[in-house]
Amino acid sequence: MLTKAPKGTKDMLPDEAYKWHYIEKAFADVCETYGFREMRTPVFEHTELFQRGVGDTTDIVQKEMYSFQDYGKRNITLKPEGTSPVVRAFVEHKLYAGPQPAKFYYNIPCFRYEKPQSGRLREFHQFGVETFGTDDMMADAEIISLASDFLTAMGITDIELRINSVGCPECRKKHREALKEFLKPKYDELCDTCRDRYDRNPMRILDCKSPVCQKLVQGAPLMLDYLCDDCRNAFEELKANLTAMGIAFTVDPNIVRGLDYYTKTAFEFVTDSIGAQGTVCGGGRYDHLVEEIGGPATPGVGFGLGKERLLLTMEACGADIPEPDGADVFIAFMGEEAKEAGLGLMRELRQKGLKVQMDIMGRNIKNQFKYANRINAKKTVVIGQDELENDSFAIKDMETSEQVTVPMARIVDELLG
C-alpha cells in the first residue's frame, strides 16, 4: 500500500521532531565536552565489511542484514551497526597516522530485518562513540562516563550499569572448551540457532533470548573464571577507574554482547522502566577489529545507543523535553497595500534572526488573530490602512493582550527588543 510506511519503519512527524533535535544536540554537546569529533559514514557499505567486522556467526550477518547487488554487480549492505563503518573510514583515510587517541562520535540510521517491537524497528537510529589507539582502561571508563553523563542529563534515573569481561582470543579458547563440554549433554534441547552456534561461537548461546536456552545455560562456566592475567588485570583496572570517577556498577558475568568483535570490556546500561528489562546503551572493547578490517593493529573501544529506546525510556521516566517556542512575531494585515508592507517587514525581521509568520491562506483579520494564537506567537504586528496613513504599526503582546503603537521607522528595533 503506497500510503503506508513499510513494516518496521516509522515517520518522524513535526510534533515529534523537536524531541529528536533535543537529544541530538545534547549528545553532540556531551561528546564535544569529552573531546570527541563527529564522523559521518555512508548509509551503505560493501557487504564484506560486516561479514568480516561483525562476524559471520552473528544473527546480524546470518539473517538480519538488508543486502543486495547493485547495478555494478557489487554486494552492498545497508549498515546494520555503526562501529565497522567508522573503523573502515579510520583505515581508509589513515587516521591512525594522526594524533592518538582518535575519538569520534556519530548519529546514524541503521537497518536490520528483525521482528518490530517497542523501541526496536527495522530502520532505527543510533548514537555512538569510538576511541582508537589505546588499550588503557581509562579509555573504557571515559566512554562509560560519557554515556552515564548523557543518560543522566536526559533525565533517566531508573537505569543500572552492568560490566563484564569477555576476555581475549587466548583465554576465550579455554572458556570455549569448558562451555562446549557443559552444553554437550544439552545439545539436542538447544534451539536451532544455538545448535548452529555450538561449534562456531558457543559464547553466543549465553545471549540467546529463548526461555528454553536461558534455562539450559544456568550454571554454565563463566568467562570471568577463565581470564588470563592480562584480561583480569584490565578488568580490575576498569573497576578501579569507574570507582575513582564515582560511577556505580554491577559485575554481570552473563553479559556477552551480540557482536563477535568484542574483547575484554563489555558493558550495558539496562532499565526495566519500559516493561521487560532492556538495554538502552551497550558497548565494549574491540582490540582486533581495525586489524581484521585491514588496518594496522590498533585497539579500540566504543558504544552504541538507540535513539528510539532512549526516547521511550525518557518518557517512562517523566523526563522533561522542552517544547520549541512559537513564532516570535505574527504579522496581521488588511488590504493589498498592508500586505506589501508586511512582506517587506517579515523579510527584514527574518534576516535579523526572528521567527516570523504571516497569513498565506486569505483569512480575515479575526481569523488571522486566531491563527496567531494557535502557533503561539509572542507578538502580533497589525498593519491596516490607518496604520499606513499614520506611518505607525500596532504591536500586540499575545500573552498580556497589551497593545502599543510604534512609529514605522522604529518597528524593527522595538521587535528585536
Q: What structural category arises from helix and sheet content?
A: alpha+beta
The pLDDT mean sits at: 92
Total beta strand runs: 16
From the alpha carbons, calculate the radius of gyration and give it in angstroms.
28 Å
Tell me the overall shape: elongated
Counted by DSSP, the helix tally is 15
Strand content is 15-25%
| Biggest pleated-sheet summary | 8 strands, mixed
Low-confidence sequence ranges: none
Explain how this protein is built.
The chain is an alpha+beta fold. 38% of the residues lie in helices and 21% in strands. The protein has helices spanning 14-33, 47-55, 59-64, 83-92, 137-153, 169-183, 192-200, 211-216, 229-244, 289-293, 307-316, 336-351, 365-374, 385-389, 411-416; strands at residues 37-38, 44-46, 66-69, 75-78, 102-111, 123-132, 160-165, 250-251, 263-271, 278-285, 300-306, 329-333, 356-358, 379-383, 392-397, 403-407. The strands form three sheets. An eight-stranded mixed beta sheet has the order 1-5-6-11-10-9-7-8. It has a five-stranded mixed beta sheet with strand order 13-12-14-15-16, sandwiched between helices. A three-stranded antiparallel beta sheet has the order 2-4-3. The longest helix has 20 residues, at 14-33.
Compose a concise summary of this entry:
With 417 residues, the chain is α+β, with helices and mostly antiparallel strands. The chain has 15 helices and 16 strands.
Topology of helices and strands:
Blueprint: H1 14-33, E1 37-38, E2 44-46, H2 47-55, H3 59-64, E3 66-69, E4 75-78, H4 83-92, E5 102-111, E6 123-132, H5 137-153, E7 160-165, H6 169-183, H7 192-200, H8 211-216, H9 229-244, E8 250-251, E9 263-271, E10 278-285, H10 289-293, E11 300-306, H11 307-316, E12 329-333, H12 336-351, E13 356-358, H13 365-374, E14 379-383, H14 385-389, E15 392-397, E16 403-407, H15 411-416
Parallel strand pairs: 1-5, 7-8, 12-13, 12-14
Antiparallel strand pairs: 2-4, 3-4, 5-6, 6-11, 7-9, 9-10, 10-11, 14-15, 15-16
